[in-house]
Specification:
Elements (H helix, E strand, L loop, with lengths): L5 E2 H7 L5 H9 L3 E3 L2 E2 L6 E2 L6 E3 L2 E2 L9 E6 L28 E3 L7 E7 L2 H8 L7 E8 L6 H7 L1 E3 L2 E3 L3 E8 L2 E8 L6 H8 L6 E7 L2 E2 L8 E3 L2 H10 L3
Helix pairs in contact: 1-2
EC number: 5.4.99.-
InterPro entries: PsdUridine_s_RsuA/RluB/E/F_cat, PsdUridine_synth_cat_dom_sf, PsdUridine_synth_RsuA/RluA, PsdUridine_synth_RsuA/RluB/E/F, PsdUridine_synth_RsuA/RluB_CS, RsuA_PseudoU_synthase, S4_RNA-bd, S4_RNA-bd_sf
Keywords: Isomerase, RNA-binding
């Protein structure tokens, strides 16, 4: 461990883990790791800008790391890129003025609205987007009804599309209004237009599509065009989901 730096219990307290005394108790109990090693020595100094610190296996973030984690409710008509060569409205308009170079996690087509994550944590962004980590995404779609009771079972078993089979992790009807039905689709697929193509293939073309969750992060009451900073618990849960 470095001789210079900040005392570990102070870093934990500043990150919101608990009071300094509670943080000392966590260290003494062997519940804190720094760069993969369990630390039990009080007064251990770390560099909060670079150290990978975990409490009970969950990674914590520090202000000194300079990492930014934002949730954006992307409106319709906005393309999922930070710089559109065609001059269409893009994601850069929602982070203008920030000095960090942010990556977007999760593409949505221009006609789809909902949750996109923005971060300068390149490794997290890469893992969240990589299919091998199978991060779940949740969508709510408006489709024409009625929806057969057996449709969920059919979608969970798998549907053959032109570029290969796809199956959902879960499917349920969440609302009805006249001939319109709202359905929730959860899957870890990331292929282009996958939800629209999937529902079209089973006779329910999508009229409106909203992504509500990426892994453990929920869009909640965030209004279209607005952003919010992820909580420390949400960031820790994302780290956990991708093995960081």
């Amino acid at each position: 461990m470095p001789d210079e730096g900040v005392r570990l219990q102070k870093v934990l307290a500043a990150a919101g883990v608990g009071s300094r005394r509670a943080s000392e108790a966590l260290i003494a109990a062997g519940r804190v790791e720094v760069d993969g090693q369990v630390v039990r020595t009080l007064g251990t100094r770390v560099d909060p800008a670079t150290a990978v610190i975990k409490v009970d296996g969950s990674r914590i973030t520090t202000a000194e790391s300079g990492q930014v984690y934002l949730a954006l409710n992307k409106p319709t008509g906005v393309v999922s890129t930070m710089d559109d060569p065609e001059g269409r409205p893009d994601l850069s308009g929602y982070v203008r003025g920030r000095r960090e170079r942010l990556f977007h996690v999760g593409r949505l087509d221009a006609d789809t609205e909902g949750l996109i994550l923005l971060t300068n944590d390149g490794e997290l962004a890469h893992r969240l987007a990589h299919p091998s980590y199978e991060v779940l995404k949740t969508y709510v779609a408006e489709v024409p009804g009625p929806v057969a009771p057996a449709l969920g079972r059919e979608l969970r078993a798998g549907i053959e599309l032109e570029d290969g089979p796809v199956r959902v992790d879960s499917f349920r009807v969440v609302g009805r209004a006249g001939t319109r039905v709202m359905v929730e689709v959860v899957l870890h697929e990331g292929r282009k237009h996958i939800v629209r193509r999937l529902l079209e293939a089973v006779g329910h073309p999508v009229k409106r599509l909203v992504r509500t969750h990426i892994g453990p992060v929920a869009m909640g009451e965030l209004r279209p065009g607005n952003t919010r900073t992820l909580t420390k618990a949400e960031v820790a849960a994302l780290y956990h989901d991708v093995g960081l």
